[in-house]
Specification:
With 66 residues, this protein is mainly α. The chain has one domain. The protein is 62% helix and 0% strand. It is built from four helices and no strands. It has helices spanning 3-16, 21-28, 32-40, 47-56. Helix 2 packs across helix 4. It is globular. The protein starts with a helix and ends in a 10-residue tail after the last helix.
Length: 66
């Protein structure tokens, strides 16, 4: 998956769980504006930030060697 695909999945799940941008920011320790600008402006986020948000939503990122 690309980072954009992961961010799209995060957004879909955030909406499904009805979690606000501010709540995502508070729970992940990130600014909600950071997440919002990454989504709106198609700017990347650090993998550390993505992992923090994934954990808030109940996901775990795994890397599988083929």
């Amino acid at each position: 998956m690309t980072q954009k695909e992961i961010l799209d999945m995060i957004e879909d799940e955030r909406l499904r769980q009805k979690i606000s941008l501010r709540e995502i920011g508070r729970l992940s320790g990130l600014s909600h504006a950071t997440y919002q600008s990454a989504r709106r402006l198609d700017r990347g986020m650090t993998w550390d930030s993505i992992i923090r948000i994934l954990r808030v939503l109940g996901f775990e990122l795994k890397v599988i060697v083929k």
